[in-house]
Specification:
108 residues; mainly beta; 40% strand
Length: 108
């Protein structure tokens, strides 16, 4: 499991240490997760106790996100909760096509 960050910019974006997972806060309620060549739109807060998923952990191999507060873990492709305290599933939508915004160069 890769911890998302410590790289953070002022636009509400976090990048994993090796650059494989990017979490982008689109607004108060929406989070865009870019991982493993996929773009996944999800709610910005955990359904358990509203932990901010922008500060969570992303498992790039299993496509899962873990809330930083109580460690509820969700499948990013289905929203199904796979561990943690009982709660509702995470709302997710797997996006297709090219992003409608310019992709920045993260190499330098």
């Amino acid at each position: 499991m890769t911890q998302v960050s410590p790289t953070e910019n002022t636009m509400g974006e976090r990048v994993s240490g090796d650059g494989d997972a990017v979490l982008r806060q689109l607004n108060e309620d929406l989070l865009l997760v870019e991982v493993g060549g996929q773009r996944i739109l999800t709610q910005a807060y955990c359904p358990h106790r509203r932990g901010r998923l922008l500060f969570g952990y992303v498992n790039e191999r299993k496509l899962r996100i873990t809330c930083p507060l109580h460690h509820s873990t969700f499948d990013l492709t289905t929203g199904e909760q796979v561990s943690g305290p009982p709660c509702a599933p995470l709302r997710v939508a797997v996006l297709s096509g090219e992003p409608p915004y310019p992709v920045s160069d993260r190499t330098g």
